[in-house]
Amino acid sequence: MPMRLRLLLGALALVVVVFAVTLPMQQKLRSRAEVLRREVEESEKDAREELATRAKRQERVKLLEGLAAAPEDFDLLMKTGSFYVQDREYEDAVFLFQEARRIRPEAVEPYRALYQTYIADARYDRSYDAATEGRKRHPDDVELILGLVHLNTLMAWNREARELINHLKQTTEADNPRVLIASAMIYRQLADTRHAEEDLKAAAAKDPQNGKIHALLSKVQMETGRESLAMETIRRALELEPENGQYLLHLAELQRGLRTPESLQAAKKTAEKALSIELGSSDAYFAIIQTQLAQKHTEEAQRMLESLRRRHPDHPGAALELGKLYVRQGRAVEGQKLLDDYSRGVAIADRSKGLSVRMAMQPKNPEAYVEMAEMLVDNGAPEKAIVIARRALQLVPGSRPALLQLSRALESADRAGEFLELARRPEWHLPEFMETPGTGR
């Protein structure tokens, strides 16, 4: 072998050895650089948010000074209340919107604002109160009606939601994309995918630049087995909103479903992008794990599942997948405990669905409402339980089982002081201190 060639081969071997030796260090440096990059981005974000917060505080001080000089200025009350909502100071916001309503009881804006404030604070029954009271003066207001549709859908009261949508479809708002989306959501809850798709396509025709419509349509298409079309549709949504983490996770799910090496790698990258947009997202983290499992990267998936369980011990998917891995490894006791945790969650969900069906089939039967309220309190959802218990009391005023669940729910939601008022008047109404003098309401 010529000397020159031997020297070249020796140099190449040396390069390979050096590269192999330094590879772990290179990986660590890249990881450290990525951590530093994220830390810089977070610091810059914090600085921007601090500046924005200071500007908001200064604006709020000006508004409060204006209210001190003109305490019954309707526009100032509404604007200042909105600032308090942004700062999550809901009680102050409610007070200001109440004042605006007292000053101008015929205006629709305070009712809308009260509804939105109570929704933001998860006081769903008070949202019902505000929207229902507002509709007494503004029966066709689309914002209030869509608010009630949202609440009814949240409680799985699809019959009431459908009646409200049908009312809107008799008005000039019939072709409003938001009305069509709400209608589609109700159809989807009822597994009526054909009508859901019709409404979403009509909404997209009216508002083609709305990514949410395309994302919902993609989910309906996936549910009906048209994965290729669903992928095309979600990509359209991402063209409109490329940084939407939920859209990315839906795309990752579709990619994962193809089960090819290329599609699984694409799904992993898509889920990683979603995680980079929303750091700490358990859904994005779990989507990466699902891809690791599909690729048979079991050790890495197990490490990530154990990490996810430490941070989110109630994550049902993590319990299921980690439980199955432990059982296959012969760790039967640990695995079965996780699988039992998952099964309990499934049983609770099944019971909730059963009670929802029972309420839908027997809307005048208070027993189903009482059972649902009890289950919701027991499983950490007292705000929804309050709505359900109030409905039971509307059906049978003074019902002791309903009063018991209302009391438990209010106490769990740190609202025990409202029990006497709601027990006396469970119907949807604004509290007495919000009533306008001389109206009789």
Question: How would you describe the overall organization of this protein?
Answer:
The chain has 441 residues and is mostly helical. Among the domains are: 56-172, Tetratricopeptide repeat domain (Serine Threonine Protein Phosphatase 5, Tetratricopeptide repeat, Alpha Horseshoe); 175-242, Serine Threonine Protein Phosphatase 5, Tetratricopeptide repeat (Alpha Horseshoe). Helix content is 78%, strand content 0%. It is built from 21 helices and no strands. The chain has helices spanning 3-69, 74-86, 90-103, 109-120, 124-137, 142-154, 158-168, 177-189, 193-206, 211-223, 227-240, 245-258, 261-277, 282-294, 298-311, 316-328, 332-361, 366-378, 382-395, 400-412, 419-424. Helix 4 (109-120) runs antiparallel to helix 5 (124-137), helix 6 packs antiparallel against helix 7 (158-168) and helix 16 (316-328) packs antiparallel against helix 17 (332-361). It is globular and about 100 Å long. The N and C termini lie far apart (104 Å). The model is unreliable at 434-441 (pLDDT under 50).
Average pLDDT, all residues: 89
CATH class annotation of the domain at 56-172: Mainly Alpha
For the biggest sheet, the summary is: none
User: What's the Cα radius of gyration?
Assistant: 28 Å
Low-confidence stretches: 434-441
**Proportion of beta-strand residues:** under 5%
Cα shape: globular
Q: Within the CATH hierarchy, at the fold level, what is the topology of the domain at 56-172?
A: Serine Threonine Protein Phosphatase 5, Tetratricopeptide repeat
**Helix content class:** over 70%
Secondary structure tally: strands: 0
CATH superfamily of the domain at 56-172: Tetratricopeptide repeat domain
Helix tally equals 21
* Span of the ends, CA to CA: 104 Å
> Which series of helices and strands comes N to C?
HHHHHHHHHHHHHHHHHHHHH
CATH architecture of the domain at 56-172: Alpha Horseshoe
